[in-house]
Design brief:
Elements lengths: L16 E9 L2 E8 L4 E5 L4 E15 L2 E5 L4 E4 L5 E16 L7
Length: 106
């Protein structure tokens, strides 16, 4: 079992944002994003399908032409290629799952 456990360094992709890969395999990756209030996940897109779970805090998300607010316990899926981003309204944490793995995060 210990061969399966890996530790990944934290990264700071944007001011007030900390990214920590929790686990990965070629076809799947789980990542924690911690946000300070006011921090942004800048608008971007990627080929990966992304599932986002709000563990804590409040966020305003834009996905395509839709903008909505989410809080603890909410979750949604971002389709491949959809332009998306968020603004943190209250400090919090997102748990994102990507398929396939985001090799750019390793």
């Amino acid at each position: 079992m210990t061969d399966l456990l890996q530790t990944y360094p934290a990264a700071h992709p944007d001011p007030g944002v900390t990214r920590q890969v929790l686990s990965d395999a070629p076809e799947l990756m789980v990542v924690s994003f911690s946000f300070e209030a006011g921090a942004e996940g800048k608008l971007h897109d990627h080929v990966h399908v992304q599932s986002t779970y709000i563990r804590a805090g409040r966020f305003r998300f834009t996905v395509g032409d839709d903008t909505f607010e989410v809080g603890p316990g909410d979750s949604f899926v971002i389709p491949s290629g959809a332009r998306h981003g968020c603004v943190c309204l209250e400090p919090g944490e997102l748990i994102d799952t990507f398929t396939p793995r985001r090799d750019d995060f390793l």
